[in-house]
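Students often ask why we bother predicting the structure of a whole assembly rather than each chain alone. The short answer is interfaces. A chain on its own may look different once its partners are present, and contacts between molecules only exist in the joint model. In this exercise we take two input lines together and write out one structure for the complete complex. Read the inputs first and try to guess which parts will touch.
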Amino acid sequence: MDPTEPPHLSGEHNPALSNAAIVLENVSKVFGRFVALREVTARFEYGRLYAIFGPNGAGKSTLLRVVCGLARPTSGTVTVIGHSDLREVAGKLGYMAHASLLYDEMSGIENLRYFAGLYEIRDQERLRQAIITVGLDPDLPRRVGEYSQGMRQRLSLARATLHDPDLLLLDEPFANLDPESSRAMSRLLGQMRDRGKTILLVTHQPAHVADIADESLWMTAGAIAAWNRGVAVADSPSRSGLACKVSAGGPRVRL
Amino acid sequence: MSRTATLTISNLAKDLRLEWRSKDALNAMLFFALLVAVIFSFSFDPTAEESRRIAGGLIWVAFLFAAIVALNQAWARELRNQVLDAYRVSPGPANALFLGKALGNFVFISVIELLLAPLFVIFYNLRSIGPAYQLVIVAVLGTWALVANGTFFAALSLRTRSREVMLPLLLFPISIPALLGMVEGTTAILTGESSPRLWINLLLVYDVVFTTVCLLLFETVLHAE
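Now the answer. The structure tokens for the assembled complex follow.
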């Protein structure tokens, strides 16, 4: 698909959607009386990095959880890499959450060794390399519970990318990282995107993704309020909601 | 070796390692079971014959309540840092997680049983009149009955607000046939008055049925929100 083509955001069913890495059609997610996602329809293309912004409670994390199958939509359909049964694409997804998803009582390499088993990875050198890639020492005997927040965050990325997934879902990967580590992680994510990985990244720090995001979304009250080509650094859309401040790149999309 | 078997061993090894390093479950279980054994020994002053009649109930009460501690801990460590979500998004089979956890709990409770059995023998002056080796069979089958159901119901109550209260509420009623088998089987062996065969068979059938049901349903429980 032509990357300059405006993203598909209509609610109508479109067979062409199935060619995308992720297709959401009228997806809603309700927790009790709280509507976390409202009729979200979107298409995320292969090999692109999407930055998702929005205030707390806007539905950003829920969107990622729905895409990776941790939360079932109340209504609507989710198709990931051509499959609507998300168990079938489990091996192709990498998920990094707010929490580290790591065992505090084990060292970094022990954690990765355990998770590698789930993906049938037996190459020990690959585990070491995954830790080195995120700037940690694979021989560090310290338990993860004794790591700093930033170290956990980096190890968490190593865990999420260990099996070389086609689709990466990252929930605030820059949280707790110092500026140098944030730049390194940003570079790493850019390289992954260049290798064809599709990345959905939730962050409150637009500056960290300004150089790598292909598209950016602004979510508010469970809906996608704005979607921009290129890099969009939006502090906040207007209350009427529909404009994004575009700092560079393609067209501004009004919904 | 099948993928499920490999990952079961991996999960078991991980749980044993975590427990070895934290000692969360073992310490609490040991303390609790020890407390029950000591308090009951202070409360009663039975003859050797009376001891044999009541010991089956006392022993299993101690182990049952101690097991609840281990069962709650087993899943609590999966909730810290939301590690369970990492398993849920992976292609790892659900049953490998269940079996690894159940085997881990079996090991923890068996360790407590091995440590406390001599204490019960000393405190209650116990001597088996029936064939003592059958006590091992009752212990193995009874412990598995507790951990298979317990691991399943602990997972089921994971997302409830008061899960530590929910587990006994769910587990005890459904464990009544197994508890009957454990207590009556143990008493029959200690007193030598009747054959424990019926109770051993009951435990065996209970284990097979409930392990099968738990394995069939666990994937649904694991992926429930």
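Check your guess against this: Strands of chain A lie at 22-31, 34-44, 49-53, 75-80, 93-96, 167-171, 198-202, 215-220, 223-229, 252-253.
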